[in-house]
Specification:
Elements lengths: L4 E6 L2 E6 L9 H15 L6 E6 L22 H9 L5 E5 L2 E3 L1 H8 L2 E5 L3 E3 L13 H9 L1 H10 L2 E2 L1 H7 L4 E3 L3 H13 L17 H14 L5 H10 L5 H16 L2 H15 L16 E4 L3 H12 L4 E4 L3 H20 L5 H11 E4 L10 E4 L5 H14 L5 E4 L6 H6 L7 E6 L8 E6 L5 H13 L3 E6 L6 H18 L3 H11 L5 H8 L1 H11 L12 H7 L12 E4 L2 E4 L1 H13 L9 H21 L6 H11 L9 H8 L1 H12 L10 H9 L3 H7 L1
Parallel strand pairs: 2-3, 3-4, 4-6, 5-7, 6-9, 10-11, 10-13, 11-12, 13-14, 14-15, 16-17
Antiparallel strand pairs: 1-2, 7-8, 15-16, 18-19
The structure holds (2S,3S)-3-hydroxy-2-methylbutanoyl-COA.
Length: 693
Amino acid sequence: MSEVVTTERVGAVALIALDNPPVNAASHALRNGIQDAIATLDADPEVKVIAIYGKGRTFIAGADIREFGKPPKEPHLPNLCTQIENCATPVISILHGTTLGGGLEVAQATHARIGITGVKVGLPEVLIGIMPGAGGTQRTPRLTGVPAALDMITSGRHVPTEEAHKIGLLDQVVDLEPRAAALSAAQDVLDGKLETRRTGQIAVTPDEAAITEWRTRMAAKHPNLISPLKCVDGVAAATLPIAEGMAEERRLFTDCMDSPQRAGLIHAFFAERAVAKIPEATATSRDIASIGVIGGGTMGSGIATAALMAGLPVALIERDQQAMDKTAATITGNLDGAVKRGKMTAATRDTILADRLTLATDFATLNTADLIIEAVFEEMEIKKEIFARLDTIAKPGAILASNTSFLDIDEIAAGTSRPADVLGLHFFSPAHIMRLLEVVVGAQTDPGVVATGFALAKKLRKVGVRAEVCDGFIGNRILAHYRKVADYLVMDGASPWEVDSALEDFGFAMGPFAVSDLAGLDIGWATRKRLAATKPPEERDVVIADRICENGWFGRKTGKGYYVHDGRDSSPNPVVDQIVEAERKAAGITPRDFTDDEIVNRYMTAMISEAARVIEDGIALRPIDVDAVYLFGYGFPRFRGGPLFYADQIGAATLVERIHTYAEEDAHYWQVPDILHQMARNGTAFADLNKES
Ligand code: T1G
């Protein structure tokens, strides 16, 4: 018997206890242990009922995704489920914590399921690019019916205890510890109070209409993904006898496992967790019981909303009553949106607004705040003046953070008497929705302050990524580089709509020009003016966006930019074609056509190049951190895993070759990062750098 699986006899009841921390993942050892235990106990005539339960925080939370991509070892989970289901002795399971994926499938193969209050169950395989592969598409519909099964399997959502009981996934709900629940339910089986049945023998009521509806829905919602449709196909096969249905599910599951989408989505899953592994992780973080925010604009209001929604009281400073009223309206609107999205009740919203939000004009209001986040205009002198004032007001030990998106945190910190308490907390708009938080570490930032930044990220349910100081930190520095390629493509012959369309087909929610219209063209215009004096003479000059701004067209906010915006509808702005034609002529360029692949290859090669330099310069800890920044802050298609995961799919040698080819057109812009040269020479990949740290 393996130590991760132990058995215990209590009279005619046999207990199988699972102990594979942290989440009882269905590792090879766990599967082996269960197989041996079931075989032994089922053969013992003294055993009248078998109960499986998990120790620790949860019953099985799924297959061990660390085993994915490696040669699968027997017993395979679907076969183990069949062994359990075919047991002559009644087998029941006790579900607690987050019983997910293969864990729920094991439970569905037992003959009855007992939920412990608070348990959440789900089949999240679709979120990592696959589908239930151990009978979930066959047994769920047998227990819940086809529509509920389709909802669960294609959404991957966690189903709360009450709903799980209601739809038939749980036979009982008890408020006991797992072992006690196992003994109690086993006794109910022996007393004839708890019915046991083989799930596989339950007939499924066909529902062609539901199958057709979900196929249509998944094709529309996930045009780039293959696993959602495979999930529907799996459920559709549940009307077959269980053995045939399991074989069909296995075929579909193998299609998903062989897809690069699975690799990308699994990488994204681990990226969200890997970024918390920072050098300062063992430092003592400071308690954050209240937050101050300076500035109630879009960012300040969003940051305040995020903190309020996480249960933190917020004091927000604005310059006068009119500004405070505007801020109050923005925050109320943000919270109304959360109510509409079902993220909170109206009563909670009202409590937050009444009890947890303080708006004021006097900085002294912040003298008790544990953390103060400055979110004012991106002007260094203004920020330095604010930090100097905060330095005299904030209590000893308070952390002073700037939400700046690119300015030098060290320069800001140098203006205070407490540089060790200063860091950057770069939120992404809308700050109460976007999950990324760049935690920018100054040269003198105390490790405990960095650890506090990450604790805050977790509290706000954000993904904290550690960044060193440079212009733009990680995300915006890379964006500033590759965004130029979109302009160069337009100057050389592609239209803005062709560029956007190619990148949306690649998987981005929006192309770069649509994003610019959404963010506001005036922001980029101001940045270009700010940087004009320092722009290298050899850098290509593209003034198309400036010409559009000179018309007063700043994008969605003015109704026109690259596109003409009519409510939610947008169409290419015909005047932009004329501007583009005039600028090409002035530059003496003869336009040429670009295929979608050429557009994507240039755009992604530029993104990867600057991301590589960010790693080279030590701004990000690992390639997986850059992937996380782009997955959680820039709408990078999740199934592609992130820019540097995607780079490994292309290979360093190919990337170097591409850059050399492009450099023939523009040697200044297209330069091969040293790290890429080394990887091409050594045959290594960015994934190797993730392992080193
Ligand atoms: N396999 C291996 N390790 C896992 C794991 C898993 N399934 N789930 C979590 N971990 C690790 C995680 O990397 C972290 O490790 C630690 O556990 C705590 O996780 C046949 C094929 C369960 C809700 O997709 O959703 O079953 O960083 O930080 O926030 O059909 O983890 O500490 O070293 O996330 O409390 C389906 C994925 C698999 C569940 C807990 N199951 N996991 O969240 O902790 S596919 C899943 C989660 C499958 C079958 C198919 C969450 C959680 P470390 P954590 P958490």
